[in-house]
Amino acid sequence: MPTHSPTSLLQPSRRLPTASPRREHRLVRGWLPALAIGLFSAALAGIGPRAAAQVGGGLPPEVVRAASPSTEQVEVIRKFVAEQVAKMKSGDASAVEAGRTALVDVVSDPAATVGFKLQMGSAIGADLDQLVADKDQHRVVNALFVAGRVATRNTTGALERSLGHARPAVRLAAAAALRDVLVSTSTPAPPLPRNQAPALMARLSQQLAGETDAQVAQGIIRALDGTRADAALHLEAMQSLADGLARQTARLRKQKGPAAGAWVDALASGLNAIRLSLINPANAGKMMPVFFKSVGAAAGQSVALVRDQGFEPDAPVVALGNLVGTADTVLVFNHAASTGQAPEKQTLKDDFSKARAANDRSAFAGSADKWIGSSGLLTKAPYGLPAGDLAP
């Protein structure tokens, strides 16, 4: 069965060469969307198991399926890992991908036990730490993919550190791999306990708050939203997302000139994920005051961004209109859920469109004040946001 992988995009002709920072940035910008699609398609589609006799290209099935691997089986695992890691450390792109495929195949086998996966993590953890520190981006991305699929305490550290990598492509790969880890924590017998998920979500939120590349921000949003199959975990993830979005939007408001359209789209994507959480009947009565406050801050900051930057000559008007419409919807549903009151009327998108047509910034600011003004709803209970956080 063919193996779907992000690294099929990283053939030598597609890899990023050493170049000036400006040229590398242009190359990364064009390459990131394809990488994101590959990574998340692989995460969603999964990697099919090989025939029993060919697990991992030859690793005995009884080893993969051993509930508690024996000393001899642990030695087989370590030898297998060493052989595959040697391929991944080679200078040959095909060998790197072959090593990755073998490692991912064994942990993706439906019958692979927690005991086996824990031994895999123990055997490969130190090597993955070395691989993700490598200068070769192709090698690094492949290693991150493996780390996300093994998904044990021994491999998540490499992913968390890689979120802070200098290269956007590496940060994006780390976010995609962390999505795999978060998804795995909701399985019946995860190699990484579910109680470890909040710390990973907090790290993703922290990275989102300070991220400088909109494509990577989209990847982080997808990683947090990827927990949707576990309603309780997803609700926690959406609070982490809201916290990161609020801080990122505040950062964008402070920069010189309007936010780029890609950033505005990323903010809208994040708010839309939160919107779906708010209207999910399964979450009724389960959202806490701290959740409502975080969501209010995220949506309020987006309204403030549109107020502050939406009337600049080079502002991405269509994207900003979509953003303020999504933010308004989130504010309305969040307020209704937190207060038990009937939903407020949604007007901000139309108000922005009319004010833009009339080039009347103050008209839209007046409409936005309902939520983000010095006495707006977000400054009162149950939110209590400081008015200065939302002021122009």
What does this structure look like?
The protein has helices spanning 21-45, 61-64, 71-88, 93-108, 114-132, 137-150, 153-162, 168-184, 197-210, 214-225, 231-254, 261-278, 289-309, 317-339, 348-357, 361-372, 387-390. Helix 3 (71-88) packs antiparallel against helix 4 (93-108). It has 2 domains: 1-192, Leucine-rich Repeat Variant, CATH 1.25.10; 202-392. By secondary structure, it is mainly alpha-helical.
Notable features of this structure?
elongated, 392 residues, 17 helices, 2 domains, Leucine-rich Repeat Variant, mainly alpha, disordered N terminus
Question: Layout of helices and strands, plus pairs?
Answer:
Layout: H1 21-45, H2 61-64, H3 71-88, H4 93-108, H5 114-132, H6 137-150, H7 153-162, H8 168-184, H9 197-210, H10 214-225, H11 231-254, H12 261-278, H13 289-309, H14 317-339, H15 348-357, H16 361-372, H17 387-390
Helix pairs in contact: 1-8, 1-10, 3-4, 3-5, 4-6, 5-6, 5-7, 6-7, 6-8, 7-8, 8-9, 8-10, 9-10, 9-11, 10-12, 11-12, 11-13, 12-14, 13-14, 13-16, 14-15, 15-16
CATH topology of the largest domain: Leucine-rich Repeat Variant
Query: Helicity range of the residues?
Result: 55-70%
What is the CATH first-level class name of the largest domain? Mainly Alpha
Structural class: mainly alpha
> What CATH architecture of the largest domain do you see?
Alpha Horseshoe
In N-to-C order, the SSE pattern is HHHHHHHHHHHHHHHHH
